[in-house]
Prior knowledge:
By secondary structure, the protein is mainly alpha-helical. Helices cover 37% and strands 9% of the residues. It is built from four helices and two strands.
Amino acid sequence: MQPFFGGEERTESEIKLVGVPLISVERTDWMWKAFLPEGSDRNHSVVNVFGPNAVDISGVKFPATLLFVGGFDPLQDWQKRYHEGLKKSGKEVHMVEYPNVFHGFYCLPESPEFSLLIGEVKSFVQKQSSLT
Ligand SMILES: *[C@@H]1O[C@H](CO)[C@@H](O)[C@H](O)[C@H]1NC(C)=O
C-alpha cells in the first residue's frame, strides 16, 4: 500500500523530509545495503524498479494496485514513480495522497486518514472482486 522503493539518486522528498517518523535516508541506505547482493547498488532492478535497470513488465499479468502516498513520507517520490511506471506499463493503478501522514501511518487507528484508508481499501477490494 505504501511501497518501499529507492535508488542511487536522492529525490527531493528524501532530501527535504528529515526528522520524520520511521524513515530516514540513513536507515533506508542501511536496509538496502543489508538486503542487496554484494557489489550491487540501489539502482538494482528490485529497488529502483522503474530505473535504468528496470525489467519490462508490460507483458506480465499484474494485479490492480492501490497506493497510498503520505506527504511526510520521504519515499513518496519513489512511490509516485512507481505509480507512473505501472501506468506506462499498462497496469491498473490507483493512487491516493494524504498530505498529513507519514510512512506506516495506518498503524495509528486514531488518525482520521486511517478510516479514510479503510474505506478506500474496502471499495477497491469490492470493485476488484466484482470484476472477477
Ligand atoms: C541510478 O538511476 C538514476 C535514475 O533513477 C540515474 O539518474 C543514475 O545515473 C543512476 N546511477 C547509477 C550510479 O547507476
